[in-house]
Every structure is written in C-alpha cells, then in structure tokens.
Amino acid sequence: MSITLTYCNLKKLYSKMNKRKIIILISIIVIIVGAISLMMYFMSFKELPAEKNPENRKIFIKASPVVYNDIIPVIKEGGRLGSNHNVDVISEVQGEILKGNIPLKKGQSFKQGDLLIRIFDEETKYNLKAGKSRFLNTIANALPDFNIDFPDNYKNWMNFFNSIEIDKPLPELPKIISSQEKTFLSSRNILNDYFIIKSSEVRLEKYSIYAPFNGAYTDVFLEVGSIANPGIRIAKIIRTDKLELEIPIKVDEINLIRIGDKVKITTENSNNVLEGTIVRIADFVNPQTQSISVFINVNQQDDMELYEGLYLLAEFDGKHIKNVMEMPRNAVFNFNEVFIVENGKLVKRNINIHKINEKTLIFSGLDEGVKLVVVPLVNVQEGDEVKIIK
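Predicted structure:
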C-alpha cells in the first residue's frame, strides 16, 4: 500500500515539472518576439539619408593654357665605365714563360713600355747568330768577285760587310744597280740568306711582350714557368688611362643626340661632375634592352678615381624641339590622350608625344590657348562639368 502511494506521488511531481518547463520556454519565446517587434517599431521612426544626385556633384581641377616654346630636352641615363682598349695577350712563339719587369698577376698595373712577359729565347738567339755568321762568310767569299765584276758598287758592299754585327740587327742591303748584279747575288743565295735572317730577327722580338699602353691585368691564364704555345692566351689587359662610358639610349630619343656633343657625368653618391664627349653611336639596337648604345669618352680628374665597371650617370642636352610644351606625365591616359576644358566640360583630345621624361613629357598637337588639364583625374568621363581652380 505504501509503495503504490509513493509511485503516484512521483508521477504527479514529474507532471508538474514538465508543465513548468513548457511555461518557461513559452515565456522566452514571447520575450524574444516582443523585443524584435519593439526594435522594428522604433527603427520605423529613423529617417533614411537623402540620396545624392550624381548630376549635382562638382569636380574641381587644375588646368593650364597651352603655350608652345622651343625646348632643349635633357636625357638622363646610367651606364658602366669601361676601357676603350681590351687586349688579349697571345703567344706567337713556343717556350717557357719567364719573369718580366712586372709580376704576371691579375690586378697588377703597368706603364707603357714595361716588359710584361718574356719567353725563353736563348736557343733562338744562338740560331740567329749562327745564321749571321754564315751570311758573313757568304759575303766575304763573294767580295773578290764583286771587285772584279761590279767595281762601281764594290765599295757599298764592303761597307755593308763591315757594318754587320752579330748582336745587332742587319743593316739595309746596298742598292742593286744592275740586273747582272741581281743575278750574281741570287746565284750566291745572298738575298735569300739576308731575308731569312731578317725574318728571324722579327721572330726573336716576339719572345718579349711589352705593354702597349698604361693599364692592368684583368685576367691571367698562364703563370710564370708554364709553357706557352703559339696561339694560346697568356693574359688579358685593359687600358686604364683612357676610359669610355657606354649608355643605352631609347630608340625614340637617339635622334636628339649627336657625335661630338658634350655630356655631364656624375657618380650616384658624388657631387663631382666630369665632362665627356660622345665619340660613337651604335647603328644597331640591343635586342634585350631595345636601346642603342652611345659611347662617351670620359675626361678624368685628379680628385676623382675612375675604374672599369663603375656605374655612372650621364646627362645629355638634346637638340632643340620647336613649338612644344611640357606637362605632367600622370595627366596623360591611354598613352596619348588628355582632357581639355571646353564650355566648362571635359573633352578628350589626342596629343603628339616627342619625349617622355621621368615625371613629365614634351608634346604638341593641341591648339594654343586651349585649357589643358594638368592633374590626373579619377572616375570622370567626357562631358562631366568641371570647375577650374587657380
């Protein structure tokens, strides 16, 4: 009996708890709906901002009247300094490379006339001396016949014989005065031996290589003690007292400069100004940069050190351009279109561009006096009403 009563009590308690949850849930829903309705009610009293009429907006611009003058354009470009003489030192003979007066090392400087490279030549010297000795013997044997057959020229040949020294180059041959004398000299091989010795003298000079100018080694391919063979590169040298600057110029600007024009040259971080002269203009276009190289002879100064490979800036004064005007580059759009102002409205016009600078350009093609817009405009179109500000 007691168990049954307890079960009934539990059932009633559970029923009361479910009713309470349902009431709470309904209350929450009612509150949320009421809050939303109240919020919408108050929002209905807020006035929406009035829409702006785009036709009533005012565009303020800067414009200048077109006035043409003669302008000397300035071209500024940079390039690398280089030597106007780059020479490969190539051996024409065979032998061991010996020390010269200047160390055979990369970066070593030298003066014109210094002995740069010496190749072992003792064997060649002795062979040349032996050839001169045989030549002397041949002439000595021919002199008695000369005295009999060609007495008019005997004295000249005797003086030639006496002037020959083993350690010095052969003197010039006496003048041959008759065909009979020429035949006699040829039959004794005197002419043949003479020119063989002269050829050997020239070849001996090739064992010593002297500096053709003031310069420095930029590369050394064979060291002292190596064996040089004919045609092999020993070193590479440059001239350091004659430098030139190579500047790439745009194709459409190359007609503004000429050979012989003076050029101002500066370094990027220096106020020193050098003077140069245009000495060459290439007649071909670099396919990578689409530019034409201009070469400038640089006049060095004692207070400014210049080296090959140094980056320099060049400033050219171009030819006069007649009847043109300069304007800001950013006021041009679609490459060659500008805005002008007519009757208070924007109008598009095309211009002829003569030169483009870093921030400006030089143009023609508009009537003088036209009001040209000189500032960049955004979100505008032809026909918009504008007001020019001063």
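Summary: Confidence is low (pLDDT under 50) at residues 1-5.
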